[in-house]
Amino acid sequence: MLGPVILAASRRDRMRRLISAAPGTKQVVDRFIPGETVGDIVPIIEDLTGRGLELTMDVVGEDITTPEQAGAARDAYLELIDRIKDLELGPKVEMSVKLSMFGQALEHGHELALKNVRPVVEAAAAIGTTVTLDAEDHTTLDSMFAIHEELRKDFPQTGCVIQAYLFRTEADARRLAANGSRVRLVKGAYKEPAEVAYQNKHEIDKAYVRILRVLMQGDGYPMIGSHDPRLISIGQELARTAGRKLDEYEFQMLYGIRGDEHLRLAAEGHRMRVYTAFGTDWYGYFMRRLAEKPANLRFFLRSMVSKG
Fold this sequence. Notes:
The chain has an eight-stranded parallel barrel, surrounded by seven helices. Strand 7, helix 11 and strand 8 form a beta-alpha-beta unit. Helix 6 crosses helix 7 and helix 9 runs parallel beside helix 10. The protein has 13 helices and eight strands. The protein is of the alpha/beta class.
């Protein structure tokens, strides 16, 4: 599989410098990350919500090495929430956060991440929206789930993400579905070893369907994070079989990928949420988008050639 090779290479400093300096990079980055500041992203929020879509906003950045940087990440989300409040779009725009941005990998990182994310969750609740904790590599998940459980004591609407390619995820899904939380299911976009994760696309797809069935039959609110037409159709059928109404689950897709499908699902009455990232520290997010789908990489390579 090409994806793991890209992810492994992306961690090398030389690759980072090469990609950042490539003439076609900005064109492709703009496709997935439509702005660097809150001011840049406001027109995007207004446009997408005006078309009947909902959003989940991600301030990109993962290379946090100091508590000060973690605090700055927290403040960036608080600034975003203030702008969404001014737009009176709170119920349509939620936040997605990576706990690594809030200092999870630092000394006493679990406590630091919880301390930094709590004010974001509180501010989101105050404007009628919520926060979803993104899943990162498998070594961070026990901490993420513990923080999720702690936040839900005061903010039960707090969501989390689970990844179909991990062997542990079906058991996590059963626990979370019974718990009534909001759960986004994705395939997974980190390079994980064979000891903890499926490596074959067919096996990952089968796991995705098994886990989605668990979520649909449970008491929680499933969020189907996929661009795969087959999995989208299966998700619709599983929802019907489980007797779920259209507002009892939702689809989520990335900004810049299958935009026509976003609008089609919304027009059919489905809740369709667009995962929209912005910020200056785009590298990690961008490389995972290239790794997820060969078409993204081909688009990038064509851009490099055309601009070279």
